Amino acid sequence: MTITCFSSFTIAQNLKLATEKIITPELGKSHDISESGIKVYQKIQSKLNRIQNDYETMGPEGISKLDVEYLELHEMDTPPNSTDTPGCSWYCAALINNVIASSTLDDSDTYKAWNIHDFDLSNTWATNKNRGIGEQITFVFGKTRTLSIHQIQIYNGYQKSESTWKNNSRAKKIALSINGKHYAYLELEDVRNVQKFTIDVQKFLADTSLTFEFKIMKIYPGKKYEDLCISEINFDGTGDH
C-alpha cells in the first residue's frame, strides 16, 4: 500500500486554487478602425446628412420610406474608434475622479493612464516596465448613493490598427481588487473584441470612494515590442441617470 503525505502548505495551496474566483468574458463586437472601416462610416454619415438636408428643405414628404428606414438603422451609429454609448447611459450619472497607473511608457502623455478611459480606441495606456507583468491601473469613482457597477468592458491591446494590436503585448490574466480587497481573476481571450466581465453588484457608498484596481498577472507577448497595452476599460451598471 502506498501512503501519500501532504504538507499543510500543500493542502493550503490546493484549497486556495480550488476556491480561486476566475471570471471569463462574454465577447462583444470588435471595432473596425482601419482606413476602410472609417471610409464605410464616413459614407454612411454622408448619406445621413443628405437625408437630414432633404427633410429640412422639403419636410417629411421629401424623404422616401427607404430613407426613413436607413435613418432609423444608422442614426445611433458612433465613429469606429469610439466605445461611447449613444444616448443616455450609466455614464450620464457616473463620475470617475481619477485613473492612476503604476507606470506609463516613457512617462509620456501619449500613453497616459487616462487614455484607458477616454472612449477612444485610437489611444492606449501602455507600459513596458517588467513587460507589463505586475503593473496596475486603478479607477477611483466619486461618491454617490445612486449607482452600482455589475459589468467591466475591456478592449485589450493597442486597438488602433491590426498591426499595433499584434506588435504590442496584451493582458492575459488580470487580478481585480475592489476597494483594496482581492475580488477575482479576469481571464482574457487574445481577441480584439470587447470582453465583458460580469461581477457581483458593487454599490457606491455616500461616504467612501469606490476603487477598482487591475493588476496584470500574465500577458500575450507582442510580435515586435515589450509594451503592454490596454486601449479601454469601461463600466456598466444601474442607477439614476
Overview of the structural elements:
With 241 residues, this protein is of the alpha+beta class. Helices cover 22% and strands 32% of the residues. It is built from four helices and eleven strands, in the order H-E-E-H-H-E-E-E-E-H-E-E-E-E-E. It has helices spanning 8-19, 35-58, 65-74, 162-167; strands spanning 22-23, 26-27, 96-101, 125-127, 136-141, 147-156, 170-178, 181-187, 195-203, 210-220, 228-239. The protein has a six-stranded mixed sheet with strand order 1-8-7-10-5-3, with no helix packed on it. The longest helix is centred in the N-terminal third of the chain and has 24 residues, at 35-58. 24% of the residues are buried. The mean pLDDT is 87.
Whole-number tally of structural domains? 2
Count of helical stretches: 4
Range of helix content: 10-25%
Structural class: alpha+beta
Beta percentage is: 25-35%
Distance between the termini: 67 Å
CATH evolutionary superfamily of the largest domain: Galactose-binding domain-like
> Could you tell me the number of beta strands?
11
CATH class of the largest domain: Mainly Beta
In short:
This protein is an alpha+beta fold. The protein is built from 4 helices and 11 strands; from the N terminus they run H-E-E-H-H-E-E-E-E-H-E-E-E-E-E.
What characteristics describe this protein?
241 residues; alpha+beta; Jelly Rolls; 2 domains; 6-stranded mixed β-sheet; 5-stranded antiparallel β-sheet; 11 strands; globular
Give the SSE map.
Layout: H1 8-19, E1 22-23, E2 26-27, H2 35-58, H3 65-74, E3 96-101, E4 125-127, E5 136-141, E6 147-156, H4 162-167, E7 170-178, E8 181-187, E9 195-203, E10 210-220, E11 228-239
Parallel strand pairs: 1-8
Antiparallel strand pairs: 2-9, 3-5, 4-11, 5-10, 6-9, 6-11, 7-8, 7-10
